[in-house]
Design goal:
Elements: E1 8-12, E2 29-46, E3 49-55, E4 59-66, E5 72-81, E6 85-86, H1 90-100, E7 107-116, E8 127-138, E9 141-153, E10 158-166, E11 186-197, H2 224-227
Antiparallel strand pairs: 2-3, 2-4, 2-11, 3-6, 4-5, 5-7, 7-8, 8-9, 9-10, 10-11
């Protein structure tokens, strides 16, 4: 059960991995994923219903580094210990660990490689959609993953939500059927919370510096690209007025 969810989340969860042009010097930014407040799960169709699993333990980071050209270089990595995934059935969990060979391949890893979106929308209280692409490594084998994610911006953190189908045969994994017959694809669903951390040389107020972006430098996804995806799985949380700092500005 390649709970490659973590990627997702792909996640990653997560998040940006691209370039953003800025004016003036800016410090490097670092975000850390938090398990508390995050959800990383998967669903697998079977003859007796849907098998559900969760990844209760994972860790990841998002690093944003200003380049000499004035652009942002953003990268992310999310790691899920394969042996830590659970399905609420001990016998099934033991079989899952055996199939994934967790002793030999202990981690499921997602590395973000590409980001497409309009970062001018990174304003506390806003919700927007972007496209991400990266490499997902499961059972020692790596395959490309591409998916849309929804980004929720808060005063002190961001949340990244999305889902994607996962085909275990691409990772050289044996059929995970246990009693009930299962079939591909597995659906990975995630909502990850990322909090800013201080980077050497920055002050506490430097974590969200106001920024401007020259028009036309980023490819802004068309709204129609995301209308076909259901949004009720990740309803945008409400935010009380007056609790948010000054937003990013173009």
């Amino acid at each position: 059960m390649k709970k490659q969810l973590c990627l997702a989340a792909a996640f990653a969860i997560a998040v940006p991995a691209g370039h953003r042009a800025l004016e003036g010097p800016h410090p490097a930014l670092h975000y850390r994923l938090e398990v508390a407040g995050s959800t990383l799960r998967w669903e697998l169709p079977s003859t007796f219903g849907t098998v559900k699993g969760t990844a209760a333990v994972f860790h990841g980071t998002i690093d944003v580094v200003p380049l000499s050209s004035g652009a942002w270089d953003v990268r992310s990595r999310i790691v899920v210990p394969a042996a830590g995934m659970r399905t609420e059935n001990r016998r099934r969990d033991r079989r899952m660990r055996a199939i994934l060979e967790t002793t030999k391949f202990p981690d499921i890893v997602f590395d973000l490689r590409q980001f497409t979106g309009d970062l001018s929308q990174v304003t506390p209280g806003e919700t927007f959609s972007v496209q991400i692409a990266g490499d997902l490594t499961v059972h020692g084998r790596t395959a490309p993953v591409q998916l849309p994610v929804d980004v929720y911006v808060f005063a002190d953190h961001i949340e990244i939500a999305g889902s994607f189908p996962l085909y275990w045969k691409r990772y050289g994994i044996a059929d995970p059927s246990f009693v009930a017959r299962v079939k591909e694809p597995m659906q990975v669903v995630f909502r990850l919370r990322a909090v800013p951390e201080k980077v050497a040389g920055t002050g506490p107020t430097d974590l969200h510096p106001p920024q401007s972006t020259p028009a036309g430098l980023l490819s802004k996804p068309r709204r129609s690209e995301f209308r076909s995806r259901p949004t009720d799985l990740h309803p945008p949380p409400s935010t009380r007025a007056g609790l948010l700092p000054e937003p990013y500005r173009r």
